[in-house]
Amino acid sequence: MNPSELFEIWAPSGALWSRWAKPVLFAESSGAPSISLEAEVLPQLDIPPDNQTALILDLPSAESVKAALALAGLGYRPVPLYNGARGAFSASLTGTAVVDNDAIAGCLIAGAEVLARHRLPANAPPAFLLDSRRKPVNFDPAPGRFDNRWVVFPQDFPSASFLLAHGIKRVLLLQADPQSQPQQDLAHVLLRWQEASLELLIADPQHAAQPVPLRVARPTHFGLLWYRALALVGLRRNSAGGFGSVVPQPSSG
How crowded is the C-beta side of 168, counted as CA atoms within 13 Å? Predict the structure, then answer.
């Protein structure tokens, strides 16, 4: 299966939410590790199908993909928002990526057949997929490493008005620690939805059927015109889209 065919399965051209899916990891799917979902146990998510609820899965690595495949069986449309590249594939650069995206790419490939079997309707409610490791606080920016840290922006998600216009009245965030506030970049998205009177809920995957109300605290630089520029400081864009480039060697004087 080539990258375009793979992306079409995860983001069908006729599906309502496909315009927000990110193609970065699909374009780099060649050479991804082989993963057998036959040997993987998909999580049991006790979430009733609800056309008025959108989900955000902010989980580490491929856990969000596996949770999404389980949710597809319940009628939710996975929308991959992974925006960090895998990195160079030469032997000299193997293992240099700040964020290892190989498991995500492998699960996207292995999960395509599973997802295709569900034949989801074009307007199935969305489940947006994130990697909670996308911007590690402690990392080694040594020259030669592939810096593929990334963040999300409000533009990476539908607006509150779009969600409401298509029948979405609430958003459930699944993250490992439901006692913690959402990550700063995601908080910029959720607070806009909160201010537009969308109901926000939060839970961990093991207790997805018992979410609690989420009240998002105001994140740093919220609403500033130059927030996007500030958030991009220190990150490296990829020439093919998304985030990721090799940290250069310092020039010698």
Answer: 27
Contacts (Cβ under 8 Å, ≥6 apart) of 188: 153, 154, 219, 222, 227
Element (H, E) at 232: helix 227-232
Query: pTM for the complete prediction?
Result: 0.94
pLDDT of residue 251: 67
Contact present, 131 and 151 (Cβ < 8 Å): no
Calculate the alpha carbon distances from 170 to 157, 186, 200 in Å: 14, 16, 6
Integer Cα distance of 127 and 94 in angstroms:
32
Q: Region 113-119: what's the mean pLDDT? A: 94
Retrieve residue 198's tokens: 């969308």
The answer to whether 61 and 110 are in contact (CB under 8 A) is no
Half-sphere exposure of residue 178, counting CA atoms within 13 Å on the CB side? 20
3-class DSSP state for residue 239?
coil
How many residues does this entry show for the chain? 253
Q: Sketch the domain layout of the chain as residue ranges.
A: 3-241
CA 228 – CA 154 distance, rounded (Å): 10
User: In this structure, how many other beta carbons lie within 10 angstroms of the beta carbon of residue 185?
Assistant: 19
Predicted pLDDT at 90: 46
Q: What is the pLDDT of residues 199-212, one digit of tens each?
A: 999 999 999 999 99
Q: Cα(53)–Cα(180) distance, rounded to whole angstroms?
A: 21
pLDDT at 26: 95
Is-contact 193 163, C-beta < 8 A? yes
